[in-house]
Design brief:
Helix content: 25-40%
Number of helices: 12
Number of domains: 3
CATH architecture of the largest domain: 3-Layer(aba) Sandwich
Structural class: alpha+beta
Number of strands: 16
Oligomer: single chain
CATH class of the largest domain: Alpha Beta
CATH superfamily of the largest domain: DD-peptidase/beta-lactamase superfamily
Largest sheet: 6 strands, antiparallel
Shape: elongated
Distance between the termini: 22 Å
Order of helices and strands: HHEEHEEHEEEEHEHEEEHHHHHEEEEH
Low-confidence stretches: 1-39, 419-424
CATH topology of the largest domain: Beta-lactamase
Radius of gyration: 26 Å
Mean pLDDT: 90
């Protein structure tokens, strides 16, 4: 900073009084340049590779072996799913199973009350309606969707209104990841592209203006009402598969809470436990699964209905318990998937997460021969996982160039400064 002031003073002294304005303009430019440079978190040992980012490697006891900018906060993108999974295992337990309740009223109307099951897919739905048929259910009229176990103020922070599946909305009672797989033929006929999922009216509606081809799209793009669209999709799938199971079904559908007089027919627990749910979440980097798990942690900890506030508090408090308050405070989560650019992590805090998560490392996908979770958004290229010898590592790149594989390859070769001292 002293050299900066000397440079500016020399500049001003070298210019005549009539050029004072020019001198001050130059001064401002220099300050902008230097302040911009100081905001960039580069790593000298990775010159040209890490322009704005950080990395760190720790031993199996959590001691930092090598790092750069380990205490600088960065946008994590999807590596935030690892803290989400860690706290979910702590609060819910590996054997936790998401449930869905089914009620029948005196007029043969079916009520479906969900509790955020992220894997309520066609195979699971067919098992449910087959069970209901075996229990003696032969006919249903209207299908009512009860989504009152969630009371969300908004959809996930960072979610956009695209048709991409990673932007699918979430809710209490949802099916098939709120996405449809369709095929449009040359005559512009729309058909389901999933063998176990019948062609539904909502599929024809979403695919009516598309060119021939195969598509995977979420059910709510643009300005649609998520709750209404999710309920319609859920009811259509249950109705179609109920008919397949031999249950007569000819009524309508609407969102409606279970009335006091309705009879509980069946409580379904998903065939997949939490370990399997988290494996799917981490393997496919599913934002849909991650945020339903995140919200469920809050609801199970502080009571239903689920809200973002309860989830934020539950996950933060869970991280305090796992990592201690100092490290937990360096992890900022606004939602559980990494969609939000307001999420923040540091290398040091993530290394502590990985140390605690190590017994569950098998849930991570293998990339470049190591278990790792990636985090990718525009200008965000992150990795978090374990090297071949089990050492946890984190790479946080918030920059335009995606050089994370180069950084990872060097770390795998043991090329990180401070191997013995932990210093650059």
């Amino acid at each position: 900073m002293r050299n900066l002031w000397l440079t500016c003073r020399r500049l001003i002294n070298a210019i005549e009084m009539r050029s004072t304005i020019i001198a001050y303009l130059c001064l401002c430019c220099i300050f902008v340049f230097f302040s911009g440079q100081s905001a960039v978190a580069g790593c000298p040992s990775f010159t040209g590779v890490i322009v704005n980012g950080a990395y760190g490697v720790a031993d199996n006891n959590g001691k930092l072996l090598g790092s750069c900018n380990p205490d600088t906060s960065f946008i994590p993108a999807s590596i935030i799913k690892i803290p989400t999974a860690l706290v979910a295992l702590q609060v819910l337990g590996s054997d936790y199973r998401f449930k869905t309740e089914f009620y029948l009223d005196s007029e043969q109307n079916l009520y479906i009350r969900g509790f955020g099951d992220p894997l309520l897919i066609s195979e699971e739905v067919l098992d449910i309606v087959t069970t209901l048929r075996h229990q003696g259910l032969e006919q249903i009229q209207d299908i009512f969707i009860d989504d009152t176990s969630f009371a969300l103020e908004h959809q996930a922070s960072g979610r956009e209104s695209s048709s991409n599946p990673y932007d699918a909305p979430i809710g209490a009672t949802v099916v098939n990841f709120n996405s449809v797989s369709i095929r449009v033929d040359k005559k512009h006929r729309v058909r389901s592209a999933e063998p176990l999922t019948p062609t539904l009216p909502i599929m024809k509606k979403l695919g009516q203006h598309k060119r021939p081809g195969k598509y995977l799209i979420n059910v709510c793009k643009g300005s649609c009402e998520p709750e209404e669209q999710m309920a319609e999709f859920t009811a259509q799938l249950f109705r179609a598969l109920s008919k397949k199971a031999g249950i007569s079904s000819d009524g309508g559908s609407v969102r409606k809470p279970v009335p006091a007089g309705a009879r509980l027919l069946y409580t379904h627990k998903n065939s997949k436990n939490l370990d399997q749910v988290l494996a799917s979440m981490l393997w496919y980097s599913s934002n849909f699964i991650a945020n339903l798990v995140y919200l469920t942690v809050g609801a199970e900890k502080y009571g239903y209905p689920a809200t973002w506030d309860k989830a934020n508090r539950a996950v933060h408090n869970g991280l305090v318990s796992e990592l201690g308050p100092q490290a937990a405070d360096l992890i900022v989560q606004k939602e559980g998937s990494g969609l939000s650019r307001n999420n923040r992590v540091t290398v040091r805090a993530m290394l502590k997460v990985l140390q605690r998560f190590k017994p569950h490392a098998s849930l991570l996908r293998i990339r470049r021969k190591v278990p790792v979770k990636s985090g990718t958004m525009k200008g965000i290229y992150n990795y978090a996982g374990y090297l071949q010898d089990g050492k946890p590592f984190v790479i946080l790149l918030n920059q335009q160039a995606n050089t994370r594989t180069t950084v990872l390859d060097r770390l795998k070769q043991g090329r990180y400064p401070g191997l013995s001292t932990g210093k650059e």
